[in-house]
Amino acid sequence: MDDPFFVVVLVSVLVVAVILLIGIGGFAKGGRFNRKYSNKLMRLRIVAQLIAVVLIAIYVWTRGFGG
């Protein structure tokens, strides 16, 4: 936890998880919220997931591939 870039990567993964959980909850509940926000949440999750994967790849690459 001393590495600030690791914290950024961790936060990005948590953001993806929160977006995913909100989307799943909205889908399970259905109704107006699901109709209005399901597509927007999916797009947001995809963008957040892309950012998280890129950050993870940069983190692994800059740290020497785990060695």
TrEMBL record:
InterPro entries xref list: Hypoxia_induced_domain
- Residue ranges spanning the membrane: these are 6-30, 42-61
**What name does UniProt use for this protein?**
Twin transmembrane helix small protein
Keyword Transmembrane helix assigned to the entry: answer is yes
Q: Does the keyword Transmembrane helix apply?
A: yes
Q: Which UniProt key words apply to this protein?
A: Membrane, Transmembrane, Transmembrane helix
Q: Which residues form the HIG1 domain?
A: 1-67
What Pfam family does this protein match (any one)?
Answer: HIG_1_N
